[in-house]
Amino acid sequence: MYFITNEFDLKDKVIAFTHFAQFADAMTIVTKDKGIMVFYQSWNEDGDDGRQTFVMNETSARNYVLKNEWIKKELQQLGIITQKDIEDYETEKRRIVEEHMKNMQHIQEERDRRKYEELKKKFENS
Questions:
Q1: What is residue 17's three-state secondary structure?
Q2: What is the pLDDT of residue 42?
Q3: Which residue has the higher pLDDT, 44 or 41?
Q4: Which residues does 38 contact at the CB level (< 8 Å), separation at least 6?
Q5: For strand 35-43 and strand 2-3, is the pairing parallel, antiparallel, or unpaired?
Q6: CA dist., res. 45 & res. 36, Å (int)
Q7: For residue 102, what are the contacts with CB-CB under 8 A and spacing of at least 6?
Q8: How far, in Å, CA of 42 to CA of 53, rounded?
Q9: In this predicted structure, what is the pLDDT of residue 43?
Q10: Phi, psi (degrees; rounded to nearest 5) at 41
Q11: Quick one: pLDDT at residue 49?
Q12: Higher per-residue confidence, 41 vs 90
């Protein structure tokens, strides 16, 4: 599995799977050589009737594909993604959450320490 982040990289590729559901957040094209491109459309903010199409970067595309249970199941059945790909993604997600929690705990400890020092100073001087 690899991610295609430029629409021109689809040239000469054979399409193995597409997902263009009416109410989906994004559209997905998968090539026979296991390339995955995810893109979405957005209305122009200028107020005209045009839409712009954006190709997701690798991180966003990976998140979209591996969070979407239906697409993930379909791509597993086609052999595009493996159980190892899913496990690696989930491990990385857990690592990021744990790192974030650790950082938040550190920030909270610093706030508590500063507040303690302020209160200590305030009440020692009274």
A1: strand
A2: 83
A3: 41
A4: 3, 26, 27, 28, 55, 56, 60, 61, 64, 65
A5: parallel
A6: 28
A7: none
A8: 6
A9: 75
A10: -115, 145
A11: 67
A12: 90
Q: CA-to-CA distance for 43 and 107, rounded, in angstroms?
A: 39
44: exposed, middle or buried (Cβ count in 10 Å: 0-12, 13-18, 19+): exposed
pLDDT digits (tens, 9 = 90+) for 72-116: 999 999 999 999 999 999 999 999 999 999 999 999 999 999 999
Per-residue burial over 91-121, b = 16 or more CB atoms within 10 Å of its CB, e = otherwise: eeeeeeeeeeeeeeeeeeeeeeeeeeeeeee
In the block, residue with structure tokens 């957040």: 25
Closest CA to 56 of 24, 88, 96, 12: 24
Runs of H (alpha helix) within 1-126: 58-67, 69-77, 83-124
pTM above 0.85, yes or no: no
Closest CA to 20 of 51, 49, 41: 41
Residue 109 identity: E
